[in-house]
Amino acid sequence: MESKTSKDIQVVDKRRLQDADIPDAGRPVPQGRRAHSVLLGHCREDQAQELLQASGLDERTREELMEKWERAQSRIQKLPAFKENAAARALTGQEMPAEVKQVMEQPDCKEAFPEDTWSAALVEIAKLIPVQPNVDVEYAESLGDATLDSANPASAVKLCFNPKYPTGFHVQVDESQKAMSVTGVNPSLEVVGLQYSQEGGNGSVVVSFMISSRPNIVAIAYEDGRFFLLNGCHRVYRLMRAGFWHVPCMMREGGGYGGGFFLPEVLASPRPPLFLDFTDPTLGVIVPFRAVQRVVRLRPDEYFLPD
């Protein structure tokens, strides 16, 4: 894919990022909830209220958070307009480690990222526009390993180009219901296939379900001079907090305004939500969302049909 961006990456002043602390980091989070940084001020009032209502928070906490929404809205109106300058370039052969090629050659990755529509790129984090309003701070900070080094951008490749969503899971068997549940924090955990075999001519039939997740690659859409983060919000947050200025990703032309939480007019506004806003003490409002897990439950149904 031929990008409209220039070959050179613009460097911006990110001192506020280096000095920023996670807002309300010292405030205790109730048991069973997790602290999320939410770009509440970029939501309409009804959206913000609906988001907080759905989180099951008590009325007093919702009122306090709506006061922060008002402060965030006021702050956004005073911010300078977003400058749509070049912030990405294609990864060269030397910069594209063998791990990237191995991941992208896998059939499920080829299906999700067709070769003629996506290309590997390096994008400046300060220019990213998230299409989702929140980041699970604790979960994001847990990602990656000791090999991450902001002085070596290639060290982020393993985190950003992963053929599967790395996560632990728990299996529970319910003998009375003849069922099995697989539980994990991975939101894309799903049944991806099944196999069966039979012992002998009339023996027992053994059925196997394969449970996995979709390819987990940082994905960005480039449209109208803007870079929209479609997938990988938590990993980009981890890199940003670790001092990285750029993120390796798969990038495509178009498709940035649809499929996300924010309305197209918000994403296209003079001052859209920016990824750096998650670390801003006023714009990144900490909301204690309920902790949730993804459950895949398997249970055979037994019944009779007329012959």
Describe what this molecule looks like in 3D.
- The chain is an alpha+beta fold and 307 residues long.
- The protein folds into 2 domains: 172 residues, no CATH class; 50 residues, no CATH class.
- It is 23% helix and 28% strand.
- The protein is built from 9 helices and 16 strands.
- The strands form 5 sheets. A 6-stranded mixed β-sheet has the order 2-3-14-12-13-4. A 3-stranded antiparallel β-sheet has the order 5-1-15. A 3-stranded antiparallel β-sheet has the order 7-8-16, with no helix packed on it.
- A hairpin with a 4-residue loop joins β7 and β8.
- α2 runs antiparallel to α3.
- The radius of gyration is 22 Å and the shape is globular.
- The N and C termini lie far apart (56 Å).
Name its key features.
single chain; 307 residues; alpha+beta; 2 domains; 3-stranded antiparallel sheet; globular
Low-confidence stretches: 1-23
**SSE string:** HEHHEHHEEEHHEEEEEEEEHEHEE
Strand order of the largest sheet: 2-3-14-12-13-4
Assign a percent range to the helix content.
10-25%
Number of helices: 9
Q: Calculate the mean pLDDT score and round it.
A: 83
Largest sheet features: 6 strands, mixed
Question: What would you call the shape?
Answer: globular
Q: CA-to-CA gap between the ends?
A: 56 Å
Number of domains: 2
Number of strands: 16
Structural class: alpha+beta
What portion of the residues fall into strands of 2 or more residues?
A: 25-35%
Radius of gyration: 22 Å
